[in-house]
Amino acid sequence: MQRVAARMVDVGGMPVRRVLPTRERRTVGAWCFLDHAWPVEFDAGGGIHVGPHPHIGLQTFTWMIEGEVLHSDSLGNRQWIRPGQVNVMTAGHGISHAEDAPHDRAGRSHAVQLWIALPDAERERAPMFQHCPDLPHVARDGFDITLLVGDWLGATSPAQVFSPLLGADLRANGAATTALPLRKDFEHAVLCLDGEIRIEGEALASGTLLYLGTGRESLRIECDSGARLLLVGGEPFAEDVLLWWNFVARTAEEMAQATNDWNHGDRFGEVRGTGLHRLVAPSVEGLH
Ligand code: MN
Question: What's the gap in Å between 53 CA and the centre of ligand 1?
Answer without folding.
Answer: 6
